[in-house]
Amino acid sequence: MRIRKELWFGFSLMALIIAAVLIFTPWGNLVDGHLSKEDMGHLGLLMLALIVVAIMLGFPTAFTLMGMGVFFAWLAYRSVDPATAGQRVFDAFVQRTYGVMANDVLIAIPLFLFMGYLVERAQLIDRLFRSLHLATSRLPGSLAVATIVTCAIFATATGIVGAVVTLMGLLAFPAMLKAGYNVKIAAGAVTAGGCLGILIPPSVLLIVYGATAGVSVVQLYAGAFFPGMMLATLYVGYIVVLAKWRPALMPPLSEEERRVPLPALAQALAARGGNAFAGLWRAVTGDSGVPRHKALGQLVVSLVPALAIAAVLLVTYRAATAPVVEASAAGLVEIGGLAEAAAGAEEAQPSGVIGAEEAEDEGGVKEPPGEEEKPQEISAAPAGEEAPRETELQEAKPQDAKPEQAMPLERLPAPAWYWIVLAIGAAAAAVIYRLWNWERLEVFKLLLTSFFPLALLILAVLGSIVFGLATPAEAAAVGAFGGFVLVMIYRLIALWRTRPPGGAVGGAALWDAVKDFGVIIKESSFLTARTSAMVCWLFVGSGIFSAAFALLGGQELVEKWVLSLNLTPVQFLILAQVIIFLLGWPLEWTEIIIIFMPIFIPLLPHFDINPLFFGLLVALNLQTAFLSPPVAMAAFYLKGVSPPHVTLNAIFAGMMPFMGLQIVSMFVLYAWPQLGLWLPSVLYGK
Amino acid sequence: MQRILLFVDKVSTFVGHAFSFLIVALTLHVAWEVFRRYVLDSPRAWAFDVMIMLYGTLFMMAGAYTLAKNGHVRGDILYGFFRPRTQATIDLVLYIVFFLPGVVALTYAGYFYASESWAINEHSTITSEGPPIYPFKTVIPVAGAFVLMQGIVEIVRCVICLKNGAWPSREEDVEEVDVDKLKEELHVKDEDIQKLDRYVAPKEPAR
Known about the structure:
The structure holds two protein chains of two kinds.
Chain A: H1 2-24, H2 27-32, H3 37-57, H4 61-80, H5 85-101, H6 108-120, H7 125-135, H8 142-158, H9 161-178, H10 183-194, H11 204-213, H12 217-245, H13 255-258, H14 264-270, H15 276-285, H16 292-320, H17 330-334, H18 341-348, H19 352-366, H20 374-380, H21 389-394, H22 416-434, H23 438-466, H24 472-497, H25 507-552, H26 554-564, H27 569-583, H28 589-600, H29 611-627, H30 633-641, H31 648-671, H32 674-684
Chain B: H1 2-20, H2 22-40, H3 47-61, H4 63-68, H5 76-79, H6 84-119, H7 134-164, H8 179-185, H9 190-195, H10 197-200
């Protein structure tokens, strides 16, 4: 019976729109082909109403747009000159189509999709969840927290909501139920977490918005980073607070479940002392009855955090004391106090992206006097001497910034804030090794093989885009290549693990792995082709559609109407977001952005709203569309893999608080736009 | 009849599959170009043109394939609730009203667009002495023709569905979310999911 009700609601909505269309259509003038400007504008609005009805009917949207666009463009041209109308429609259509084919922003879409499909097939989510679960096991609500973090990372790298929710529904959902978690909270964590990938860059939604609104994707990525992080943090915070407040909903894990199984080597050494670092050091230097080379391997793994900290400090130092052209040894000597500094020097290059990012934070916060263009220098620093052309193009004015500050040949003395950072870094290293027990070593090893490769991939892709080393398309291609490598490595590890005891990996097994790899590439390519065809054909259809809308002057009419309402910017923003929220009910995000953004964007200058900021709000807003019943896709994916007694209503109820958090974060972003605009403004000086 | 339909499906799918490997080429091409620029310091002027062409060809030629797999995005808020006959009626009407004019216009216009490009031996103007661009423009009418062919098959499908009251079958293909495969990957069996019910059931009695 509920289904019927929905059908009736949809039908009456459609009937209403069609009735309005029939009444307002200038029939008389339409027939004799002489449309006044006013009539054409009305026709444009009718077209917009009709497209909503047509989309709701369920015909493939790309072709609906095409058919309507061609027809209405022809009407518009005909009223000008009936003789050439046909030819002009064809010209407009094919040129718009070619524009989509040669679009240098949209090209990033298939590449990011490909990267996502590959990473999804690397089969690391299992390990990722397990390691994050162990790492967070002492937090209240640890399973739900681990679920959200896993989702955030995995969804960011893949961007495929359905796959993430299904995988986590198979993996984390049963684990949470078994641990006695409340069904609603478990369902909410899985569905809300799975949707995070839509917002956190690199996301396809932001590319589509950038291409439609003419906003730089690079700036959108930089802008969406903190709001995305904020949303994820809000989710985690909500879980932790709720678990603290009402432990009955999320019972803490028992000691048994928290224990990390230790390998034989660790067990032998653990008997002599709790600190793994000291224990390994003794095992390597002295005689303790365990194979020395094995202990050495563990010791090297233990040193990784120290190396990472040293690398970050080194890069920060280089950035802070720039500008200097030649690389000097000064940096090494200065940090010589840290024992690992020399080793850290080798690490500095590969992790440059991450290091630079932290450097960025510091540079922005402290803002040393007389060096206002510091952020530019910092962002260019990891690139080394041959700073790429894109950096210069995108940063607009690094060249003409203060020429009198001609590059001195010596490094500047490190500013005071650097020593503070150094102290913090050293203290962090000390704390880490003070707490470095055997369980933590095991957890760290697990994280090293699951969490860090993925995080590194995302950060490398994002970092190279945001710091202007590569265009989004190039970074996506390199990311996809990273996906290749990831799949290959994880397959080889799996092969190595399942090898017959004592023997080497057989030729047949190797051949199987190669075939497996081929299948993964093949399937990922097919899916990429299909999904990018879906998105890009929508652009082809909307090309002629929006051309027709503009020709008919619908845009003008909308503008006149909106301006006549005398809205304040705040009212306009709220109105726009409410409309987008409502459109999220019958339409998919692709359709909303591609069809309706071109109508909103030209209105923004009237209200003095930054299109970048608007884009961030829209991205947050469309998140809610994935979680709002009755069409929330995420809920249906989860329902598909959950036990029969978990009802759709329970899942919906679980999603509600998270949807509330999304709306809260929209208000937060609205109240403090700097949250989204600060990073782009620091990086690109806008 | 069904055999002809499936044959056209197969052709579209084959073309789509063949062209979808361009994504591998695109990935390798761009990654190699980035490597050349930063490590070997010898970027190639035509790399950008090739990038664009690979991308444009990829998605245009996959259009028919996507249509054959029913992969173009639909607003299925109401559509999913309709009976197959109602669905087929709507589709049939809209294929004729929207699809045919749109795609015929695209193919027709694309044909002349491409032939003009051939006639003037057009080259890319992004860099001097850019690569020839007429093959790329030829993609528009070719892709349009494939989509048109597949669309006609879909129209026939609607008619068959109107007659029989059920949609005729399609060929299988990879799914974006293949639940069975994901279950296998994580070693989850249906019984395991069923067993979970005992954690849920006490709190929420069955309705």
